[in-house]
Amino acid sequence: MGNNDTALMAHLMRRAGFGAQYHEIEERAAKGYEETVEELLNPEENSNGMDLDLVSRYFIEWNHFARATPEYFAWRMINSRAQLEEKMVLFWHSILCTSDSKMQSYPTHYQQLEMFRKYGMGSFRDMLIEISKDPGMIYYLDNCLSHKDAINENYGRELLELFSLGVGMDGKFNYTEDDVKECARAFTGWTITNNIPGQPYGRYEAQFIYNADDHDDGEKTFLGETGNFNGEDVIDIIVKQPAAARFLSRHLYSYFVADEVGVPSWMNTPPVDMETIKMLEDEYFRSGYNIRSMLRVLFNSDAFKNARFRRIKSPVETVIGTLRMVGDWTTPKPGFEFIFDEMKYMGQEPLNPPSVEGWHTGREWIDGGTLVHRINFTADFLGDTSHTGIQEIISRLSADAPTISPEELVDGSLRLLGHYELADQNRRMLISKVEKNGQMTTGTPEFSEQVAEMLQLIASTKEYLYA
Amino acid sequence: MTSNRKDPVLVVLQMSGAFDALNTVIPYNDPLYPDYRPVLKVDPEQVLDIDGKVGFHPSMSSLKALYDEGKVAVIQGIGYPEPNRSHFRSMDIWHTAEPAKQATEGWLGKAIRDIDPHNENVLTAVNFGRGLPRALAAPGVSVASVGDLNNYGVLTGLDAEDQRVEALDIFSRMYSPAIGTGPTNDYLSQTGLDVLKGADILSTAPLKYSSTVEYGGGYFTEWVKSIAQVHLADFGTRVLYTSLNPGAFDTHANQNIAFPKLWAEVTNAVGDLYQDLKEHHANEEVVMLMFTEFGRRVKENGSGTDHGSGSVAFVIGDAVKGGAYGEYPSLEPSKLDEGDLRWNNDFRSTYATLLEQWMGLDSKPILGGSFEQFDFIK
Q1: Nearest-by-CA chain A residue for B197
Q2: Residue B201 contacts by C-beta under 8 Å, 6 or more apart in sequence?
Q3: Which of A210, A256, B67, B360 has the most neighbouring CB atoms within 10 Å?
Q4: Complex ipTM, two decimals?
């Protein structure tokens, strides 16, 4: 197994998951790249969910994790064996946004995350239908306030603008204001029962209901087609538009391959890598809107394989990735809120996106405040030798020889963190930092401290901000 | 009058958790008050009267002292249309000054951009606390967010001082912009160096500082003291922000125990900050805004109070024309807003007054419209 195989596998696991410890990288690399892609695309059913009911009844100290809170989502991202499935939950949560600041109903949000788990890699058509029936979404974008005699356009508009087509593509608009109205008409009667927010009704999740009496069943003209359309019909028309293929392809590209401009710029800014986008669009139509098929094409493409360190890690990727790397929080224990809050301090609070537009990504993750939190959080965890993942790095660096050179310490640490690559002058700087130590004797407490300090320095680099 | 006034500075104290406005500025002479509050009512004898009708909670004597000197504007009945009773959403509304829809830019973030459009001073705004409140966030605006002024910066986990000095030296060299690596890398470099520079400058504040004022204990008080230290160190900081721990004022239960302690801690810190500034002849340079995200239910729940709407805010400083502003909302059952104090002045009027009359900024682009202003700034 070559260095390149493990480097590529580390890349895949950072993107199609939340990163992995080196032994997992090696195991997966030995199994093969395409095999790993298939395994990620087809996770075993329920390979990582806790039995929440059992937990809440018998493991009182775990109760926190069983109450369908955002912390549970974070816990699951750390521990899920189905890493891509969970990464897709975050993908959809970042696009089909709902926010707890309005919903105030964790059970309803939990239900939505389960839906993302189930449909996240299925058909885009099914996903759009499911989100249109999602009680959290119906409440969040006011579709429950849209009536046949008084439509509320909020959901109809965002479905087109932010969830499926985008405002425009190749300089042309994808839909008109009339399409928005007709779309909203088609979704009248798609509403919920059980009030949201939960108070004072308690912790019951809301449910979708279709109220035929409140559905506008008049004729509608939508994107050039005329008929007595209901919501499903509108979605059928949406998914066959080239703009839908473009929309999904660009989102997959910027989430998995490389940072791109934000959605509002897509009408007038063409994709940076049109060839790959085209390939994804073709697969979208060839497969009948199948997300899993598009992901297979994506992960096996050269564009993906060559895109190492082309994305700035999101705060969720930073925190979850760090915890997976050090091997902490593999079982629930008290005190998780503190960890969870770190994502918020870095600018991304799961289940609370700043608006229906989702989070702004790429360099917008970084400002003076968030950079300090990001570096210190990562450095504090990577520099703590009590974590099993750090102990593993130390013992692997110690395994080959009784002593290790400054170069070997730097290069070995970078490799074991997932084949990070530093600009040559930065690598030189780290080497010169430890040069005064000369050959270091491995397996000593001093050596552990030397490794820990090196990991902290790497965590503070610009390069480490990327995945 | 000799003026020690330099560039106007705004200090914002966020009382997260929604303090109970009715027991903060208490309409103790209203016969309905004790009916709503059989357990939580404050004895009229103990209320710190301000105008014969309402008065401060007895724990707020430090604020009352400033009020008596004419330095406190009490903004009664503050709120916004269609009150939201979720802590997070309502705080977000106060942060973004946008009640109608979710917005991403903070009102102070936009103000900072106006004050320092080219990011010339990395310390134009400083927040104390964990994480940056959205009020201060706007693209392109760099705000230092400090958890502990005595230990702020990157790689604070490195224990040995010489080890850290060396690490920071490497950090600064690694973040030096490299030619031809693209705008994103340049931006990351700049941000990293700004952080280092900010931390370097900030670390001198406690060293430069000396004062006879002895602040009390607790995170909030410590952050208020840091505000004094940073302001007095003359870094050109124009906005200073800190928050009480979320949840502290969220007194659904046992309000009589927690509430007086909190107001004592907060108002003592405010009083100490004022005295500290005065001792350093800087009292005319600073105006403070103290706000919370909403009021609480008029009718108590027997032990505490639940989420409500209409509230009260305070603006404090030498530049302030003290007194009561806005009307105290009626306690008549028919005049309540779903059981809450009904707001009668939009919080953006207070923001507009501070932005225009104190900070000298155009409030319209920041607040997305024109709002009637108060005359609480001299």
Answers
A1: A368
A2: B122, B123, B235
A3: B67
A4: 0.88
